[in-house]
Specification:
Largest sheet: none
Number of helices: 10
């Protein structure tokens, strides 16, 4: 019981809009990058280092993992374009490949390069998600609490049993 209580506290610890919005980025990285890449380990490290909502990170990792099966084609095309086009990048890639730590990012794989570019493009999404959550979080929470799913969850034996272990009760 105490282990489940501890896990629930960790999952529901930080509910600020910044913690929820910025949890999308490590969740995205955990969902789309291979577990052997440096980006994946940096995402795990950032979850431990920064105050992000762990539950949002887990849910976004699952969502982006499922979505990545359909987005691999686009990411592969984007990465192939960046890795094979002549120009400025053709002089940079050999230097990066022989750099000490950069090859661990697996940047020379087309899909990983495409997702790396999409990760940088997700930073404005996290900024806009913060302002969206600041504006609409109370209305969104009221809507979620009024759904039939939430009402049936509150009436369940599971909720009654474990709500007493939370430091605050979810209404």
């Amino acid at each position: 019981m105490h282990l489940i209580h501890f896990c629930l506290r960790v999952l529901l610890y930080d509910k600020t809009s910044q913690a929820i919005a910025w949890a999308l980025l490590p969740g995205y990285a955990l969902g789309v990058f291979p577990p052997t890449s440096l980006q994946w380990f940096l995402a795990l490290f950032s979850i431990a280092l920064f105050r992000v909502n762990v539950l949002t990170t887990i849910l976004s990792a699952l969502f982006f993992f499922i979505l990545s099966h359909w987005a691999d084609g686009f990411a592969g095309t984007l990465g192939n374009y960046l890795l094979t086009q002549n120009g400025l990048f053709m002089k940079i890639w050999p230097r990066l490949y022989h750099a000490p730590i950069v090859p661990f990012t697996l940047f020379n794989q087309t899909v990983v390069m495409g997702y790396l570019i999409l990760t940088v493009a997700m930073i404005p999404l996290c900024l806009s998600a913060t302002s969206f959550l600041d504006s609409y979080s109370s209305a969104l929470v009221r809507w979620a609490y009024s759904t039939d799913f939430w009402q049936s969850f509150i009436a369940s034996r599971f909720y009654r049993r474990f709500s007493q272990y939370l430091r605050y009760e979810i209404k």
